[in-house]
Amino acid sequence: MAAAPLSESDAGSYLYGIVARDRAAPDAAGVDPRHAVVAVAEGPVAGLVSRVSLTEFDEAALPQRLADAAWLEQKIRAHEQVLDAALESGAVVPCRFCTVYRDEHDVRRFLAERADVLAAALARLDGCVELGVKAFAASTPGNAEATRAESGRAYLEARREEKQAREDLARSRAELVRDLHERLLAAAKDGVLLDLQSREASGRDSEMVFNASYLVDVTSRFEAELTAAAGDYDGVQLEVTGPWPPYNFVPEELGRP
Amino acid sequence: MSDSGRPVLAHEVTLLELVDRVLNKGVVLTGDITLSVADVDLVYVGLRVLLASVATLEEQRQLAAGEAL
User: Could you tell me the pTM of the whole model?
Assistant: First the structure.
């Protein structure tokens, strides 16, 4: 039971993710540090849950909360820390941020109703983590010849070459994406291509040319394949993030509609 | 061997990476939860603010780095 006295407004149940029934709750502070994370067992699975204030997390209050960057960052990190801690000792099906039920009975009902699909997902994810893989290419300076060209003909010629160079670049990048994804997928259990992030978002000078995530068996040759791949693409820097809870590999019927 | 010879394992997970997954992916429930799927736009509101704060933090970091030199 949580240490803090429960008031009416603390009745919300924040669901972080789902684990197998026999698993203990991870030792991590929840999104509301006053309340511990507990494992709510139902059938073959258990929900990782902590109590939250509905004043803080209710639908009416959320727009304002989500506009508060400091609040958001703190809660997002807490959400992730609970799932990271859970991932250390076994499979977890992660929930999206701010999955809040008004009451623990509703959590139990969800777990009971979706027991089959959740148990199957946990079996599939067992021994696996998600790894993010990105590739960055140094930005290519545009062809300066066009602006320097003196005659009209030289200008047009330079423009034509510039267009050709752009098309070649687009083609070689598409090829890189296809090739890299194919070889990493062959070493992984599953994989998904994600949207590229803009320079503004990633805060880097180099351009993102590849963004994907893979479901990887921890004993697999994935990292060896990645190291091999890293030397095979000129002017491209690979970056790995993770291990992540398998956010990108939740069962389709439970994902975003 | 070039710089690109080895993948870099990013130990410090950026907030952007986190936001990208935690706000957009994972099990998305409907029904009894308080943040319903109809309110998905709220998540983007939050995301925009967060990205703005990341940019601000980055500027501060660069300023601090500049002063340290």
Answer: 0.81
